[in-house]
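Backbone description:
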Amino acid sequence: SDLWAQYDLGSAQEVLSMKWNNYSTTTAYYATSFTIQNSLDGTNWIDIKDVTQTSGGDALRTINL
């Protein structure tokens, strides 16, 4: 199923990287791939980066944008 999260930074911000933990301790599920998108208005979205072949585990990971 498609799941998503949207974050409002309040105003235009330069984001150079993103950190995430790719594991749920309650379900043991993790994302195998996802796309990071950007929007200036919350309606029109542009793909920034595709992240594929991810694995689970409780390590904190960093994606450079």
